[in-house]
What does this fold into?
Amino acid sequence: MDTTLRFDILPQDTPAHDALRQTLQARIDGKTKPLGALGRLEDLALQLGLIQGRPDPVARQARVIVCAGDHGIAHEGVSAYPQEVTWQMVMNFLAGGAAVNVLARSVGMEVQVVDAGVAHDFGRIAGLVHAKVAPGTANSAVQPAMTAAQCDAALARGRALAHQAAEAGCQVLALGEMGIANTSAASLLLHKLAGVPLEVATGRGTGVDDAGLARKRAVLTRAAARTGTLGAFDALCEYGGLEIAMMAGAMLGAAERRLLVLVDGFIASSALLAAYRLAPAVRDYAVFAHQSAEAGHAALLQALQARPLLALDLRLGEGTGAVLAWPLVQAAAAFLDGMASFAAAGVSGQSA
Ligand SMILES: Cc1cc2ncn([C@H]3O[C@H](COP(=O)(O)O)[C@@H](O)[C@H]3O)c2cc1C
Ligand SMILES: O=C(O)c1cccnc1
It folds into this structure.
């Protein structure tokens, strides 16, 4: 089966992009510094320019969308915390007291909290984006996590949220998540989509002990054995995460609107992996913010040939790592805009 959605993402290997790449590289190289000396900030500036299709890209406004969803597989005892933490943390996000709120505030980023599929009735609570597809997924250890229609709905709602961010004036979109047991869903996606063995793909998530990790591995082995090789859409349906599918849709929708996508940790990277398999061009719009301490993230980054910007031993999700990379994107745009060129400053260039 496949998604009914078609994502219209401009690929970046056109002749127009080649010309712009040369223009951007010349601008970067003309700045008053030894060639290449701003390192990965130079790569970021180049990527931002290519994404926006202009030699003078801007990074003024950014949003983090935190998608929350519950997981039937939580009932197998794969997390160190109970399922109700998901909705309780949604309340915490709305009150502004979670890690992602504080970090986003510190870097001037707006937070949008979305109910993608939490197993709780929030009523008409203010500030929450009500995009609930279902009150949690089914238990993927015994049956598909969601139907094709549910997966399509999650992708479509994520895409619409990204388009809204673009209309609100954002150039950059970060995706975060909350969902007890979603490291299990992400590990299963990594295993099915990139062929990474479950022993490598499975980690401690919120901090299960050795016995908990053994139980988690056994549950995931049982879940994985239900199916054979899967495409991206079927893998999302089988192993879910309504919030993971919604993040994938948002990443694809952001790329459609030529926004730079800040990818958070293990869970968000699994959403990008699925999105990439649905529409490979999305990869050019992605910046991998950080390397999570969650086991499996290294293999996931490797599968995407991604080199994250930061390594802070975070293992939280919520978009915490992604928001911390926003100042680096701003710095890249700032040096490209504000640094003097050799010509303008009267500084001698490279000899011979
Ligand atoms: C209080 C609390 C806040 C969180 N914020 C993010 N997560 C993170 O932990 C969960 C995934 O780990 P696992 O698969 O082991 O359940 C997700 O909700 C993720 O966002 C949290 C977890 C907890 C307990
Ligand atoms: O890296 C992540 O996204 C992560 C790691 C552990 C728990 N929750 C999320």
